[in-house]
Write a structure and sequence with these properties.
heterodimer; A: 584 residues; alpha/beta; Rossmann fold; 4-stranded antiparallel beta sheet; 20 helices; 12 strands; B: 569 residues; ABC transporter transmembrane region fold; elongated
Amino acid sequence: MKIKKRERNPEVRWKSVFQVVKRSHIPWLWVALAFAVNLVQNELLIRIPTSTASLLGGSLEASAMRDTIFYYVSYAVVLTVWNLLFAQASCLAVKRARDNLWGKMLRVHMSFYDGNDPAELMSAVTSDISYGIDQTTYLMIYLIPELYYVYRATRTIGNYHWLLVVGIVAFVPIKYVYSLIVGKIFYKAEAGIYEEIGGLTGYLAERVRNLPLIKTFTNEKSERENGRRTVNKLARANMKEVKVGAASSAMIQVIDFIQQFLLIVLGVVLLQQKKINMTQWVAFFLFSQELTNTMSHVVNEWLAIKMVKAALCRAAKIYDAPEEDLEAPGDEPIPETGRDVAFDSVTFSYGDKPALRDVSFTVPEGQTVAIVGLCGSGKTTSLNLLERFYRPDGGQITLGGVDIGRMPLDAYRRCFSYVQQRPEIFSGTVREALTYGVGREVTDGEILEAARVTGIADYIEKQPQGLDTPIAPSGGSLSGGQVQRLVLAREFLRGADVLLLDEPTSALDAQTARGVQDAVLTTFSGKTIIMVTHDLNLTRSVDKIVVLEDGELVGQGTYDSLMAACPLFGEMVAAQAREREAEA
Amino acid sequence: MKAIKRYVNIFRGVRLPWISMLVLLTVSVIEVTLGLASVELTASIIDASQNAIDGQRLVRYAVNLALTVAATVLETYYGGLVDQKIGAGVRVKIWDKLMRLPLCYYDTESANDLVSRVTSDPGSASTYITVGISCITTVYATVTAFTQLFKFHTGLATWSLLIIPCTVGIGAIYSILSYHSSLLGTRASAKTVGYMTEHVHNLRLIRALGTEGVEKDKSRAIFKRQYWTDLYSQSTVGYIAISIQALGCLSLAISFVAGGRMVAEGTLSVGTLIVFYGFSSMVSIHLSNLFMAFGSIVGANGALKKVSQLLEQADETGGGQAVDGEEDIVLENVSFAYKDVPVLSDISCRLPRGKVTAIVGTNGAGKSTVLKLLERMYKPDDGRILFGDRDVEDYSLESWRRALAIVAQDTPLMSGTVRENLTYGLDREVSDEELYEAARLANAYDFITETPGGLDAEVGPGGTNFSGGQRQCLAIARAIVRAPRYLLLDEATSNLDAKCEDEVSTALDRLMEGRTTVMIAHSFRATLAADQVIVMDNGHIVGMGTPEELLRTNAYYQTFARRGEKEAV
């Protein structure tokens, strides 16, 4: 269903799809082996009808029987080998393609992810790849041997009488055109049905996810009715699909039936005119079924290629995206000392949306600087640029006087800790969460020490499994404050020199926020701290405040100096005070 | 045996479409019969020992072919019909059950799992019935084909019986393989999808921490596991193809090795041998169909097990008494543990009617659990909750919950119109005037009327087309329309920025007017308006009284207050 929807996605060139296949590192050796065995298999398939025909003709001598049985048994053996080889080739191809695509995704420039839905990217690696690459290996292994079979079988039949070949081949274009037309009609019908089914399933899924709400509002009765109605609608939509499917298979079967019948009539006529003998007739009869099947198969494979293209289009988009150059050694080492961070006339826009204009400020090493401003003023963009997720369009950012773009990326990023509003932590054990990205062996003592500093040690010690306590995806049962403290402990262990805080406490209730705030200050005292915040109370104690408005710097200095000199800052402080009053 | 009983239970109460099932059975039997008849016809066409082909037989062959096409199409149609009707019945049954389950069940299963109980699993259940029907026809076909074989030649047919034990053996191995591989497959792909979901959403973190290498290794291990299970399940599919081929070899060998000798001896005609071969290939085809059917039943096993487990859960229970009037709610020595972790221990307190009670405490103190117990989403493990002087369990759940409304920090909206959301769970008609009035009180009037469509504007899934503050105001308007006697607030303003918080708070104040309210408060200011404050710590009540009293006596409340003061500078 997803694949069909994607077909509407325009603008994927064949070249990009070939790129995907090329970069997937197909296991060529296995593919070649499976290909070879498949050729042998088709060769046997050609011999079986002739020898069976002679048996059916009543020539039951030992040699004919031995030959036939030999062909059958070898066919079974070859089929076994082929099955194993094909499974190995395609599964390995899928695995390698996944490895490579995910590897690529880990390197793609962050800006790529702004415009793309994570759920779609996910299915690029999971379902798209398994369908697309599996089909690709299948086509590589199957297509040529099948054509070989068609060629050999037609030649054998041609030896009996040329009209027989005409009878079989004449149907190929008819079938092709026919399946195109039928396919188009049914495709349209099915697309509508799939959309309907998707919508109805989505409806049920939403209700299930919100069951607690249904219970709270004691709406079970009417939801039961809704559910019944939706289920019935769903059954009707599915039934439509069954009908369309039955109708389309009926159409195809009818044409198969006509073909088979006409071929038999043709054979019988030739037989009566003594143009072919009885054994040839039987062999032709046996061939005709396998041969028409194979021919339809080849025609269908043409359609399958289109589906492969559709399935791999997201992967193609990912491979086309620009990469970050992680390992490329920048020519400048990270400065050892004097690591002041400076923005020097930095200008940046997302596409054609300007985000920062000519911003300059300095964060001296070991000091705490707050960046404040209204929504969309460019606060978070500054942090993104500093972490080199984007490059400034103009101006430069320096660390210790050196342009950050010229330092090796991975070493550079290791200088920073980044804590944001929605704390990010991976599932696993507490120990894994705390040592994630630390990149060195850490003793339990060290981990517990970090936990103590950030105030999460109590929680860990209360758990029966201690550091091995499992954490569910996205924190699970942990509260926002607890996850944030785990993140702080992790960053403490990483020991980076510069701490970037992006409203780390805004999702927490006031009390927890204070706690986390205090933990930050005690944990990272002495480090350079750059924080983005909308809580102006926090800015009273910082060394410097940078005020941004619509991407421009409108003031910098201490709290008191800004109160005197920066009207915007004064307004913001006043507004916040009013809100606090109003709340009381 | 127990398993069978379980599965029968799934279909209990589901109206089976007997007529369609009967039609399906008849059509399949006709199709099989036509198939058997075509064996003889085909044989007569390809019997190369004769000199010509009988024109009449050719016509019969064509008629047979045409009828087979018709029967196959009908079989597809009725197969689908039966599948859908049974699937819908089971789906409705599961749906109803979900509506009756106690909330604690939702803690044991992830939302995604529950979703698949409703979406994909019913399909597996109906597979059981359709596969069952095709088993009947297959058995019929096999028996008829064997009967024919014996009619043609007893000696030769006896040899053909060899096919049966081989098929049984192959089928047994296949069921094991297919069960095992589907089990492993589900697990591996759950792992792959789980890993991808988590990591695709956190790519930025990976970048920031420079753990690309670590993730590369982790993903390799997971993809490798996926590869092994893929290989396994592909080989299982291949195994079937091979088995069919091997059975074909066997029937060929039997027919021609044993039959060939008989022809040479003159006890069998070539024509009969060909018909015989046709039937014996047919037997092997039908038998292999049979074990493929077994395979698909086995594959559906996992899903059915989960469905039957769900259906066996006990329903949510409550008494039959209707809630009438307004009383104090009293918690009496209530204890509660969540998955063996104690959350509340021996809580006793009185929530006086018409008054505002605020609960404060650190994260994890058990505040939200108190609200859940008041909603009767869970039952206390010990102690009881009284309404006046009667146990709340005596009251019907429906009337109890109708008397309450809850506004939490992330009260969800549902897809539908604004109107549907505001009247959600009400069984009375609500006029537009009333809705607008509620919206006005909840500070939602302006943005509702500014949204194109107004009350009939569509709300996206989860309400994502409204901002956090707007969603909260809509949730408050919904509570106002509901006109509850009791109001439960769970940090209803904590996720909002200062400006929204202001709007939402004034809306809440209007909602609380004259209502018994229990609120979990996160700011000191909010508790000042309360008649009673309960301080909780670690599952215990450590202080209770008016704000003034607690300011004098309770250390936690004092710090809470100091922080609040600092905040409001």
